[in-house]
């Protein structure tokens, strides 16, 4: 397997990477990588790795990054390893640089593959990618190479590739997806919901319609200045120091790199913007990225109408299979039809195996999957058995 590396997005052969990301999530595309390249903190480095078959065809690819400190509080391997490794090893993990494989965009990782690659070729390619990622991590003197927020198949592939290094696989979080492709419109959606939930959905749709507010679909670059105050207000409401200038910089950057993929629903009352929901389109999926609201206006179920009901009512499901809703706010999303999917993190010792206690790892995974089921299974349309999530 021929392994090639690229340190910048500009150096990455577009045709090769686009072939690999044709079946991937939005967060592996060159557009999102361009956003992340501009956002890398000082001292961080990036490397894109591709594995090619005998005829030079790209088979699989991997983004890898190194940081002197975690780029976000949710990318902190020492937190995940607490109670699973010895104190000395835990201290080393907490104090040394960190390497992240499979991307770090929006709490989702992925190994990208050519759609025509078979299981055997894929396994060989992932092994080659993992070896190169480990070398990159060693060069940065990292203590841990962490592959965050992976779907199950990718997590198991990565764990097998790093089996000699004692890879630790942990259930980490849950993403939610609204299966909008099941419905042609709101009547189909209402019929699909359990009977006890239909009145609330109808009431929330009616509340928004009776408000007289309208919804326009626009591209992100057209409205950055209009949505920045709304997003800043939402972030500050939730305790974040996030001013209008910063919001404008963030979404101005995304507009430059991802504007052609953007589809933003803007709710207005008269000429005043009341709220928005930013989505990106990739293949047959919409990715709901962020929202914002003017809290001087009364809440008319704006969030659920923009993210759930308006797309359903417009027949978005005729061309889109699902809307990816990301992590968190599980009860609100699940009760309105979103479906949960588990995400896993794979941790690999760089200089030496982590030597995590396998019994403690299994028990952690059991407890955390069961805890999610206990808290949220009753909200999932169709039910949920988290035993299937345990490795």
Q: How is this structure best described in words?
A:
The protein contains 13 helices and 13 strands. The protein is of the alpha+beta class and 391 residues long. It folds into 2 domains: 2-174 and 342-389, Aminopeptidase, CATH 3.40.630; 180-320, Aminopeptidase (3-Layer(aba) Sandwich). Strands 1, 2, 3, 4, 5, 6, 7, 8, 9, 10, 11, 12 and 13 form a 13-stranded mixed sheet that branches. Helix 9 (224-237) crosses helix 10 (244-258). It is globular. The model has no long low-confidence stretch (mean pLDDT 94). This is GNAT family N-acetyltransferase. It is an enzyme of class 2 (transferase). Its EC number is 2.3.1.-.
Summarize the helices and strands and which ones pair or pack.
Layout: E1 2-6, H1 14-20, H2 30-39, E2 45-52, E3 58-67, H3 77-81, H4 87-95, E4 98-101, E5 112-113, H5 119-139, E6 144-150, H6 152-161, E7 168-178, H7 186-192, H8 198-210, E8 214-218, H9 224-237, H10 244-258, E9 262-269, E10 272-282, E11 285-293, H11 302-313, E12 322-327, H12 330-334, E13 339-349, H13 358-376
Helix pairs in contact: 2-10, 5-6, 8-11, 9-10
EC number: 2.3.1.-
Enzyme class: transferase
Keywords: Acyltransferase, Transferase
Features:
globular, alpha+beta, Aminopeptidase, 13-stranded mixed beta sheet, 391 residues, single chain, 2 domains, 13 strands
pLDDT below 50 for ≥5 consecutive residues: which ranges? Answer: none
CATH superfamily name of the largest domain?
Answer: Gcn5-related N-acetyltransferase (GNAT)
Beta strands, count: 13
Distance between the termini: 29 Å
Main sheet characteristics? 13 strands, mixed
